[in-house]
Design goal:
single chain, 371 residues, alpha+beta, 11 helices, 23% strand, elongated
Length: 371
């Protein structure tokens, strides 16, 4: 950039920005774009832009016309990928760069955060309703159910063996409903997280070992960790509950005979920042992904999967992912899902612990300079 003020503005832009020269090569990019492309500006400068950025739209003719006429170009709702991350829906704004003929500046605005913010707000509202319903259900239904189960057991003592099937059914169904109500109570009575510095890889390892010895014994679980990931700010027990739930869902979705593969992926995305409705900002650079190769989420519930009582399984309660979303929301984090047949990715974004950023930032930049 030409002046110190220009450089400050360029570095402060909250969205990825890339300068494209007259030969369709990367002239420069801001820190947010470094994070989006997962590489350093030093390494990316001079490389063909479309080798590093895959846009699911025919841009060549439109971009050439905009460059020739000196007019801006707007492309909305297109999938943009980088090779190192799954494509995300973005809006692109491309305009001529004043003072440099043939050069263009491109702003990349991922829509993921806006969608996730709307999703989180709706989940919080649904969670409040579910909590109120939990209190009502526990008070109004559990006691009568206990009476029904007790009466059925007393009847069974005086019935012939051929009629015991009916009383056994009554007892089994009342117990199932009581178990459901206990899960609803757990959803409503979850205590606030006890926040402390947490090594996320310790949480992932505990969850992996537990899954491998139980519900996930038929699955292959792969570790793909960023070894320089700094400590997160969170409650280790509640985060363990979250990862176990995601692993269990992935295991139950797989073929019980053939099994499947789950990849636990951690990485650092320094440009991932949330701006809330009140104007306050929150950096969520620590990323965990639970990736499985199962059949994917059903189309009719994909957009509502974090809502209470929405389940893709025949006998599912629909409370597991609602509880997961509530825990992550209470941590000040975000959770999202991207699912197609053969690849489902649950992504958790969390804040780092105070004072845990400097070491990772230095290591991350060093790695990028070497790559």
């Amino acid at each position: 950039m030409s002046t110190e003020a220009d450089s400050m503005i360029w570095s402060s832009l909250p969205v990825p920005a890339v300068l494209i020269d007259e030969n369709e090569r990367i002239g420069d990019l801001n820190p947010a774009a470094e994070g989006f492309l997962n590489n350093s500006a030093k390494w990316l400068r001079g490389q063909p832009i479309w080798d590093r950025l895959a846009v699911d739209a025919p841009l060549e003719e439109s971009l050439a016309r905009a460059r020739e006429q000196g007019t801006p170009l707007f492309v909305n709702d297109v999938d943009v990928g980088t090779g190192s991350r799954a494509p995300v829906v973005c809006n692109l704004q491309i305009a001529p760069l004043q003072g440099r003929p043939g050069w263009m500046v491109m702003l990349i605005s991922p829509r993921e955060l806006a969608g996730r913010m709307t999703q989180s707000n709706s989940v919080k509202s649904a969670a409040k309703s579910a909590i109120g319903m939990a209190e009502m259900l526990a008070h109004e239904i559990k006691n009568p159910l206990a009476g029904i189960a007790g009466a059925a057991q007393l009847l069974s003592m005086s019935l012939p063996k051929d009629d015991l099937e009916l009383t056994d059914l009554i007892v089994a169904e009342t117990r199932r409903i009581v178990k459901l109500l206990e899960q609803v109570e757990q959803f409503g009575n979850l205590s606030p997280p006890e926040l402390q510095p947490v090594n996320l890889h310790d949480v992932l390892d505990r969850a992996r070992r537990s899954a491998g010895l139980g519900f996930g014994a038929h699955m292959k679980i792969i570790e793909d960790y960023d070894p320089s990931l700094p400590l997160a700010q969170g409650d280790p027990d509640q985060l363990l509950q979250v990862v176990l739930n995601l692993l269990k869902n992935a295991s139950q979705a797989a073929d019980p005979n053939k099994g499947g593969t789950i990849r636990l992926h951690s990485f650092y995305e320094h440009s991932f920042r949330l701006r809330r409705a009140d104007g306050s900002g929150q950096s969520l650079p620590l990323q965990i992904e639970v990736i499985d190769d199962g059949p994917g989420l059903p189309d009719d519930i994909r957009g509502d999967i974090f809502d209470p009582f929405v389940s893709g399984r025949e006998n599912g309660t629909g409370l597991g992912l609602a509880l997961v979303s509530k825990i992550i929301s209470d941590h000040g984090g975000w959770i999202s899902v991207d699912s197609v047949p053969g690849r489902t990715v649950f992504r958790i974004s969390l804040p780092r612990a105070p004072g845990a950023s400097a070491k990772h930032t230095a290591q991350s930049r060093a790695k990028k300079e070497k790559s």
